């Protein structure tokens, strides 16, 4: 019975939006109204009659039967493009405001009425299931466990930029099988910990224990004067700490004791702490965190999941550092006869490592409370009424898992499975486990239980709210308020939004939302070309992601104006980011000599004996420092810091951050089209159709000999392309001032020596700008447009469906209600949740 329910659920996903309506409303309207035809005659006939059919659109033969799905879609697109100013295109675009308003009313009102009727009948959101990230967080909170689960499930598809969109989700038989497998793993872990206790492991490894153990090639750090020293040696797995092998899978607190920078650059030596098998047939390394070593000794603590058999690897990972040779042939490292510290190389020293097993979600007692409950644990130990206790505990568990009260009839199948185990001589825990497994397979657990249309009940509101802001099931406070029927009270709901945004769990929202909205989950999809960007390193990439997440979190916490998305007078940076953005890094240092060389500022290995090659080495091999009037002041060792930009117009705003600029590039070149689409859809709230079929992509000249603008001009000569490019190109061309790794540039190609960047343009509504800063000034003043764009993104993420035409009045009300607060991001989130778009199916 339960499995059939899961199986039948698969037919509810993956079919996209249902056909708008068939018959009924609007069926008698098939002839295009005269007012619309008059507009078409004057502004559209040249391109969209029966002879031209630009974009395969003939507005004369289309008719106005909006109950036909294809007709509705085409008129909706016409409405959108005229409203956005994209149509009529080019010089024909000059519409009077009254003329435009009149046309939009004649087309928009029938479309809106039909769309509203569909929403009233079918709801905005078709059946939605938990994403794999939501599933993992839910099982963690429900059972008190902490093992990774999401990577064991198939990846979620996406639509409109979000994995949460219901019409893109599927639940096939294969996926259902994977969910069952993962549920088994989660229950195994929970019952093992509850019955057997938590594993205890804590061990300190002294520097002498971290040296080479005599197995295979030596790639361990140097042991000198009671300290472990790691250097920027590029040999794979150099810096591995062989004795730090994790005894089993688990979360560990890793403490690096008395970490200190050796010959710090700008007060810091940057490194990475990673874990892995550190062998060639298993080369993957998992990032635990950044190591920011300074001249002052200090302990640095990390908490991370480490797999059984994996060891730690600690090394300086800043590619702008001069790299010493290995000092030995083959895959070995030797420090015999050399003193890299005196030679001036940069390194990281520490006085030992402590590894301790931790349980970040809950200890054993918390797991026991979640799966046994206080009453059942006592009954199990004393031999109480098994059937009565089983029913009580399973009912309580099902209520939490289903995120709403359950009746006796609903819970009976799950209880029966447990009773069958008891009847066959199984233990009470075995009976519970059988019941719980079925609960975790149920559609009531895997999906959002919401009505077909209309208002959400209090429990559906609690669920939607909790997954929007905490990416997991409601806590006891939300559940109690839902039981009491208070969550649809706008005052109570607003208080809960504020409570949840102030909780530490909001970190899940920041990560989940930015991963999808800003495509941060794609940060690893491309690797910058090492020949073009030799100084791009793991420290820099991780810093970029942290920068963007810190920026968004500050906007939420401080209710900062949404205009900060395009411009701000502050940023979050660390020393590595400052050097990347302001230091003009362009060339990687060469490998150091095996013998003493006088260090970073000492003598290099040159052709002429005795000749001081220091000047050549510094100018040709180290980062080129570009003169800047001002650079942010960073305190070494403090990680990301909020800095005032003090008139630096280049770096302010989300769109100028390295992570955004990297995920919108391909590692070798940039495309105004890719960046333009990103900014329009994710920031400005524009909806762009896919390119017409048969249009060739623009192939950038990675040598930088030709300007991308020249290639775009040829591309735009195709009228089918030009109409969209009026919208796409302006922000994309403005962002050409940044290279694929987010560094400011004035020309293409290596060292900006290619074709000159021309970041000028004209916005779709006719405002000209000369450069990126000019573009920012235009849009920073358009708070209402930015607020509408952000609300559309949040609504899509939080409800599982994009805003529709019939939602626009509610979205406009959200934006209007936020105007007094300067369209603050926290206010926009709160007002979105209080809106009918969020509170209705």
Automatic annotation (TrEMBL):
Compositional bias of kind Basic residues: 593-604
Protein name: DUF1592 domain-containing protein
Biased composition (Basic and acidic residues): 605-624
Occurrences of domain DUF1585 (ranges): 765-838
Residue span, DUF1595 domain: 390-450
Disordered, as annotated region: 317-336, 583-624
Residue stretches making up the DUF1588 domain: 651-746
Chain ranges of the Cytochrome C Planctomycete-type domain: 44-90
Domain DUF1587, first and last residues per copy: 128-191
All copies of domain DUF1592, residue ranges: 456-581
């Amino acid at each position: 019975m339960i499995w059939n329910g899961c199986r039948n659920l698969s037919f509810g996903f993956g079919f996209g939006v249902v056909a708008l309506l068939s018959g009924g409303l609007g069926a008698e309207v098939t002839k295009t109204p005269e007012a619309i035809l008059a507009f078409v005659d004057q502004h559209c006939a040249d391109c969209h009659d029966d002879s031209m059919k630009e974009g395969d659109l003939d507005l004369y033969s289309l008719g106005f039967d909006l109950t036909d799905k294809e007709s509705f879609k085409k008129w909706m697109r016409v409405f959108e493009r005229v409203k956005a100013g994209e149509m009529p295109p080019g010089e024909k675009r000059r519409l009077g405001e009254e003329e435009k308003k009149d046309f939009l009313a004649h087309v928009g009102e029938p479309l809106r009425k039909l769309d509203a009727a569909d929403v009233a009948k079918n709801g905005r959101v078709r059946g939605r299931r938990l994403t794999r990230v939501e599933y993992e967080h839910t099982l963690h909170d429900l059972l008190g466990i902490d093992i990774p689960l999401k990577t064991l499930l198939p990846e979620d598809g996406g639509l409109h930029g979000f994995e949460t969109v219901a019409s893109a989700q599927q639940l096939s038989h294969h996926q259902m099988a994977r969910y069952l497998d993962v549920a088994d793993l989660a229950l195994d872990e929970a019952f093992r910990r509850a019955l057997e206790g938590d594993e205890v492991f804590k061990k300190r490894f002294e520097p002498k224990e971290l040296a080479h153990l005599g197995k295979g090639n030596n790639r361990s750090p140097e042991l000198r004067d009671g300290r472990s020293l790691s250097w920027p040696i590029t040999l794979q797995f150099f810096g591995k700490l062989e004795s730090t092998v994790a005894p089993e899978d688990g979360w560990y607190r890793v403490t690096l004791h008395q970490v200190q920078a050796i010959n710090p650059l700008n007060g810091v030596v940057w490194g990475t702490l990673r874990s892995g098998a550190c062998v060639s047939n298993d080369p993957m390394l998992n990032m635990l965190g950044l190591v920011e070593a300074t001249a002052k000794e200090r302990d640095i603590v990390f908490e991370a999941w480490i797999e059984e058999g994996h060891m730690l690897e600690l090394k300086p990972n800043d590619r702008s550092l001069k790299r010493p040779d290995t000092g030995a042939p083959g895959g070995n490292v030797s420090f015999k006869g050399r003193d890299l510290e005196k030679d001036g190389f940069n390194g990281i020293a520490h006085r030992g490592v402590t590894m301790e097993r931790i349980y970040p979600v809950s200890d054993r007692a918390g797991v026991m409370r979640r799966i046994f409950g206080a009453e059942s644990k006592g009954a199990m130990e004393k031999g109480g009424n098994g059937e009565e206790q089983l029913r009580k505990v399973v009912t309580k568990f099902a209520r939490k898992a289903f995120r709403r009260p359950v009746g006796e009839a609903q819970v009976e199948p799950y209880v029966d499975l447990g009773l069958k185990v008891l009847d066959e001589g199984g233990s009470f825990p075995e009976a519970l486990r059988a019941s719980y497994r079925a609960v975790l397979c149920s559609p009531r657990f895997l999906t959002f239980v919401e009505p077909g249309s209309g208002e959400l009940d209090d429990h559906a509101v609690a669920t939607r709210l909790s997954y929007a802001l905490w990416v997991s099931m409601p806590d006891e406070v939300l559940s109690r308020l839902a039981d009491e029927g208070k969550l649809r009270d706008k005052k109570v709901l607003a208080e809960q939004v504020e409570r949840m945004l102030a909780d530490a769990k909001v970190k899940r929202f920041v990560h989940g939302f930015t991963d999808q909205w800003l495509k941060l989950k794609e940060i690893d999809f491309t690797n910058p070309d090492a020949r073009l960007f030799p100084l791009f390193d793991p420290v820099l990439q991780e810093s970029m992601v942290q920068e963007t997440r810190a920026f968004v979190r500050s906007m939420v916490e401080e209710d900062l104006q949404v205009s900060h998305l395009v411009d701000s007078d502050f940023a979050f940076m660390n020393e590595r980011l400052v050097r990347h953005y302001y230091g003009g890094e362009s060339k990687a240092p060469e490998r150091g000599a095996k013998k003493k060389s006088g260090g970073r500022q000492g003598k290099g290995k040159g052709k002429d004996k005795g000749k001081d090659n220091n000047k050549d080495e510094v100018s040709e091999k180290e980062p080129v420092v570009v003169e800047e009037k001002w650079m942010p002041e960073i305190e070494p060792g403090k990680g990301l810091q909020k800095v005032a930009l003090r008139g630096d117009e280049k770096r302010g705003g989300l769109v100028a951050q390295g992570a955004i600029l990297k995920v919108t590039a391909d590692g070798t070149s940039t495309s105004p089209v890719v960046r333009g689409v990103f900014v329009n859809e994710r920031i400005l709230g524009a909806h762009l159709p896919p390119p017409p079929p048969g249009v060739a992509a623009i192939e950038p000249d990675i040598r930088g000999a030709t300007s991308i603008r020249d290639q775009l001009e040829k591309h735009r000569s195709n009228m089918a392309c030009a109409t969209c490019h009026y919208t796409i190109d302006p922000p994309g061309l403005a962002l050409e001032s940044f290279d694929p790794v987010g560094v400011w540039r004035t020309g293409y190609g290596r060292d900006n020596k290619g074709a000159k960047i021309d970041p000028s343009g004209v916005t779709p509504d006719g405002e000209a700008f000369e450069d990126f800063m000019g573009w920012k000034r235009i849009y920073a003043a358009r708070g209402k447009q930015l607020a509408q764009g952000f609300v559309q993104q949040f609504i899509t993420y939080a409800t599982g469906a994009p805003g529709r035409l019939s939602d626009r009045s509610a979205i406009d009300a959200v934006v209007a209600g936020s105007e007094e607060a300067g369209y603050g991001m926290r206010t926009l989130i709160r007002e979105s949740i209080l809106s009918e778009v969020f509170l209705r199916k």
